[in-house]
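Input chain follows. Return structure tokens only.
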Amino acid sequence: MVSTHWALPRVVIAAPASGHGKTTVATGLLAALRRRGLTVSPHKVGPDYIDPGYHALAAGRSGRNLDPFLVGAERIAPLLRHGASVPTPADIAVVEGVMGLHDGAVGRRDHASTAHVARLIDAPVLLVLDTTAQGRSAAALTLGMAAFDPAVRIGGVILNRVGSPRHETLLRDALAEVDVPVLGAVTRAAEVAAPARHLGLVPVAERAPESLAIVTALAELVEATVDVDAVLDLARSAPPLTAPPWDPVTAVGGPADARRPLVALAGGPAFTFSYAETAELLTAAGADVVTVDPLRDPALPGGTRAVVIGGGFPEAYAEALAGNATLRAELADFDGPIVAECAGLLYLGRSLDGVPMCGRLDLTARMTGRLTLGYREAVAGADSPVAVAGEPVRGHEFHRTMTDPRHGEAPAWRWDGAAHGFVTGRVHASYLHTHWAGHPDAARRLVEACR
């Protein structure tokens, strides 16, 4: 029987805005805590796929997302508890925020913001401040961030990009005036940077040796500049979690029968965007899940009954993907259900920036200079292996490509009065990223479609 209360130490790493150094501090803290022998559970507010990859490398276990918009506010504490429980119970959970502390979904006040998640999991906040060209005003900024929502407890500050010892003293004195403890100070010279490109940081899977070196450097940076013991004390001040853990078997209603169809889940450097709960839900629904790398694997595993191709950066690997002609040909003729999101959509088309892809969908795709980004409230445009026409779902878009045509005769989704994506035969493909913990019937339907 699962205990109803769990005294899980936890802390949320937040900032007044993007670019203040949340990922630097969160990743370095995860790695530093692990080096102390602690089992650390990494989490990320929002739909981001890339930061959790660095978190996973630092913590040695899956990085997981906490997004109230995608999965519902009622599932956030249960998902935290689930993530901190598997494969083994964690000693502490570190949650990296998104954007600024109080920045939520557009038009929804602070819904899905870092502050919202901090309230839902009842966790103290450690605020990271970029102190470039700032002195005593850092205290006013911190005080304002705390006063804006008294239900969010800011338990300390880490000063980032400090210019000199004198600058640090000035900042510490100012924060003391508003009774907010400074738990660390990182100088500009000590910064460690990860490489970035058009959609953010380069994913861990694309440059594993360099990523490991970055995580090691971040751990050393945090150990040298942050009072880790004080951070641990802050995390231990969180009250016990009372929400029951999320359970994938309960979410899908358990397997329909004893047969276990094989579902191939795309992975490797070109397809790094996948939530950990996707494989867990498919497994709970009765599938055996295996990862296939379209860059290297010449064929689907024998007996594959369905394929899930998530997001990633196929545009960065177009020539290599095209070079794996045998797998492209197999996917073009595959007679089982295929579910594709964003990168998967591009891969299933005829070409990407003029380079041949699978040809399963009659579309071409190309890079553009325009970023399409944001949450979406959609309804299924047609019956498919993962949805019933008219079914509502929430997701997000994040891409700089476009397809021609933009949707099929039977669209995958509709939102804002427009059609999006493609349902053709047993293929469901679109730009929309969804989190199946928010609509677990997708996993159940896909496994049933295999049978």
